[in-house]
Design brief:
Outer membrane efflux proteins (OEP); two-stranded parallel ribbon; 6 strands; 64% helix
């Protein structure tokens, strides 16, 4: 009885430590589905899209009319003798201000719209990148698991050879050590897959579910949905051609241009604050019998016109200077954005060209030769023509080459996504050279 209780407690503790009860159900999606889900349900994008509605309301706010005032003037006692009582209204009319204010609000709306487009584009590219990284991590895990099976097979072979007296027991220990090292690499790769899956869901950022990639490994031929990656033998247009045709399409440059326009419109608003406002007054005036000079009720009205907020003591000079500085800031920001765009585009171009070159090298040289070499080494060891140490060294080199190939393939996909991000185009076709 005590023994059973002890065993049950150990099982419960083991489950708690390994999160047996925390089972997450993943919804398998391909890249196209993931992008669609993110665009519809991403919480950050939902928040950003509200800026458009806010900016539209700010146009109405900028075009507002001033509310009127109700005024009364009442005399009491002897001071009211012969003087009228008054009930009326005052209306302030802004001169030259509503128009420029509305233009500023419209410019800000265009800025917000462009920024929303920019953020939506970045989200789609982030999903692509996170998806590729997740599938790349799975590809590496699969490669390591295959290497683990190879070493497990090697251990069994060494045990049989040792039992037959063909090799020393030391070879079995050596094979076991190599397998144990590989198991740690597999465990690390599994953690990397979990981390990449978490990052993938963090990019999608929705409370409606937890997602996993439908693809389990990077395709060496073909393509992901909605990625349109070129063949590794395809040749990119020259960097000069790409720069000339892509910078004009970048969202960040468009946003920077709109900031200049908004800053100029804001300067106009501030300058027009110097214009006085017109104040119109009008109402009903009367004298009661007791207050009139001749003891009769008298009625009439009154009107008045005032110029208010005259720029005599304060001329809004600091505000105007700051508005001019903001225009200068926006123009400098535009120049900086264009300059950074060129640098980041050149970097993305060079990285993709290098990734393409590295992947071609793996395909044309390393993978084919290393596959053949590991097969020959294994057969040679089984036949007793080579020792275990040489085979293990060969296996380690083979593992590095295969892992390097998967990493190169992953870099090729990721660098392509980064290239698309920099040219701000999701369907760039190398053959057509369309940007």
């Amino acid at each position: 009885m005590i023994k059973n209780i002890f065993i049950t407690a150990l099982i419960i503790l083991s489950c708690l430590s390994s999160n047996c009860f925390a089972i997450t159900e993943y919804k398998k999606v391909d890249l196209n589905d993931a992008i669609d889900i993110a665009q519809k349900k991403n919480l950050d994008i939902k928040e950003i899209r509200l800026n458009t509605k806010i900016a539209k309301n700010e146009i109405k706010q900028a075009n507002r009319l001033q509310n009127p005032e109700i005024n009364t003037f009442w005399n009491f006692g002897k001071s009211g003798q012969g003087n009228p009582q008054q009930i009326g209204m005052t209306q302030t009319i802004e001169l030259g201000k509503r128009g420029v204010r509305k233009k500023l609000a419209k410019a800000n709306l265009e800025l917000v719209k462009e920024d929303v487009n920019f953020q939506e584009f970045n989200l789609r590219m982030d999903v692509r990148e996170a998806y590729v990284k997740l599938v790349g991590a799975k590809s590496i895990l699969k490669t390591y698991e295959e290497q683990q099976k190879l070493l497990e097979n090697l251990l069994e072979i060494s045990k049989k050879k040792a039992a037959a007296g063909a090799i020393a027991e030391m070879d079995v220990i050596q094979a076991q050590i190599a397998l144990n090292q590989m198991i740690t690499e597999v465990n690390k790769a599994r953690v990397n897959v979990k981390t990449a899956r978490i990052d993938f869901n963090q990019v999608i950022n929705t409370i409606d579910g937890t997602y996993d990639s439908k693809d389990e490994e990077l395709p060496t031929k073909g393509d992901f949905v909605d990625l349109n990656i070129p063949k590794i033998t395809a040749k990119l247009p020259t960097y000069e051609y790409i720069e000339e045709n892509s910078l004009k399409n970048r969202f960040d440059i468009k946003v920077a241009k709109n900031k200049i326009e908004s800053a100029k419109k804001n300067l106009a608003v501030v300058v027009h604050q110097r214009i006085p406002d017109l104040e119109l007054e009008g109402g009903y005036g009367f004298q009661t019998k007791g207050m009139s000079d001749n003891g009769t009720y008298k009625s009439g009205g009154y009107v008045g016109v005032n110029l208010v907020n005259l720029p005599v003591f304060y001329t809004y000079r600091p505000e105007i200077q700051n508005a001019k500085f903001q225009v200068e800031q926006a123009e400098t920001n535009y120049e900086s954005t264009v300059n950074k765009a060129r640098k980041s585009l050149e970097n993305a171009y060079e990285k993709f060209v290098t990734s393409q070159m590295n992947l071609n090298y793996y395909n044309n040289k390393l993978i084919k030769d290393s596959n053949e070499l590991i097969k020959l080494s294994k057969r040679s060891y089984e036949a007793g023509k080579s020792n275990l140490t040489a085979l293990i060294v060969m296996e380690q080199q083979y593992r590095e080459i295969v892992s390097g190939y998967v990493n190169a393939l992953s870099d090729y996909y990721i660098d392509w996504v980064e290239f698309l991000r920099e040219i701000n185009k999701e369907d760039f076709d190398i053959d057509e050279k369309t940007l």
